[in-house]
Amino acid sequence: MLNFLWKKGDVFMKIQKRFGLGVVITACSLILVACGNSSSSSSKQVINWSEPSELPSMDISKATDTISFDMLNNTNEGLYRLGKNSKIEPGIAKSTKISNDGMTYTFTLRKDAKWSNGDKLTAKDFVYSWQRTVNPKTASEYAYLFSGIKNADDIAAGKKAVNTLGIKAEGNYKLVVTLEKKVPYFKLLMGFPSFFPQNKSAVEKYGSKYGTASKYMVYSGPFKMTGWTGSNLSWTLKKNNNYWDKKNVKLSAINFKVNKSTTTGYNLYQSGKLDETLLGSEQAKQLSSSKEFTVRSGARINYLEFNQTQKVFQNKKIRQAISLAINRKQLVKKVLGDGSVVAPGIVSKGLATYNGKDFTEDAKTYDGVKSDKAEAKKLWAEGLKELGTNNVQFTLLADDTDAAKDVSEYIQSQLEETLSGIKVSVNNVPFKTRLSKSQNGQFDVVLSGWGADFSDPISFVDLFTSDNSYNNGKWSNSEYDSLISASKDADAGSTAKRWSDMVQASEVLMKEQGVAPLYQQAQATLVKSKVKGVIYNSAGVNFNFKDAYVK
């Protein structure tokens, strides 16, 4: 375990040292196009892409993170694909019929869909996949998304058999899905990887190895993966010649390389070895005028999650004091500097509107997201008194990327300079390790984050119900649970009531400081001007490379 203890101002000195390439960056930015001319000829339909962290899983039932979902979205396909601005586009389903009551969906599948190994892709592959995900034995953390499909909740709870799930194949090319309650965002879900088909023969053939390396998978989408061993930091997506729409896939390959250091990524970009790379704070400032500079705003909130199985974090005032002690404006401007903004709450701005108002406007509250050092000190002292102690020590768990290191060290500095008797250790670990530790409750406080799976506030607020598998901190509030339940059941058919339920739930979470939202994430990047057609969506899966090409 590597711990960092910083005095006031030290974190900024470290950030300056890490990104102390201003002169070099400025010089290169003047000749940016020339610096990149060594890349492969534009006649070759190959692009080289940077990733900030390792790839955890390619198992559709078990994947939980943005990198895994990006890879699954481009190597596989569901009933629909999500195009620009999350617009529904045809996927494996070529037509859809919806019953008058909105409770039955009948999908007609295309007959030319195949798996990468040549197997026919049929309705049975969807039935198998969905049943596998909701089966409690699979322990899928995304099984909760199937709520609303007939018997899904009872199956997940072990009360009904898996084969009673409201999905059935009528022959090879007709799929019928029955709901038990209205799901307003159902079509968006059909474009999300958790609802993609799976090849039963492949799952059974590879057993526990399924999805743990590129060779232990078969693929249904525009590309197939090669070169991923399960732990290495590079892999390739190659055009899938068995894909039904291969004639419209222009790229022959996408090479991915993990670069946890933005300095390393930038150097590779300049030498022509990358066509895209993330930028650090100082890099973004220096390169913001480049024609290849772009900021991608995400429907993602990064927050502190407290392990509330521990007595100290069961104390509301302790949680509030920690949140209040962090200067979020300084965090996004001086530490991140990549276009990220102060979190408006637990739901991201720009995700969803009702009656012309953004969700964050209706749910606007300063509780849980404001910074006030005087109030932080007051509540901290009161919390310590209630706990009967004069000091608190804990470890802050975070990823080992440059950005996560900077943020975690800044938080450490803010807390130790503001709150008397606190000692914070920082443990920066690989992304995959942080996910595992979070899921297993092996943390005190964790710097976590969530990107919306689809453009609806429920994708955020559903996380913190008492029984949600992603509620790693185990915060629990009966009023909150009731509001979320109402939004998904009794009020699901009323847009106004459902919206009000979610607004109220968001306010409860913030007032109780169930978690401490920090910032809505954006990513400053450089992308070579020759790369065209890449679709980026802030919600759901971020990247869609199906229509991408090199000009």
Automatic annotation (TrEMBL):
One of its GO terms (biological process) is peptide transport. Pfam families: SBP_bac_5 (PF00496). Belongs to the bacterial solute-binding protein 5 family. InterPro entries: Peptide/Ni-bd, SBP_5, SBP_5_CS, SBP_5_dom. This is Oligopeptide-binding protein. CDD domains: PBP2_OppA (cd08504). Residues 87-471 form the Solute-binding protein family domain. GO terms for cellular component: ATP-binding cassette (ABC) transporter complex; outer membrane-bounded periplasmic space. PROSITE patterns: PROKAR_LIPOPROTEIN (PS51257), SBP_BACTERIAL_5 (PS01040). The keyword Membrane does not apply. It is found in: Cell membrane. One of its GO terms (molecular function) is peptide transmembrane transporter activity. Its main location: membrane. It comes from the Bacteria. It is a lipid-anchor.
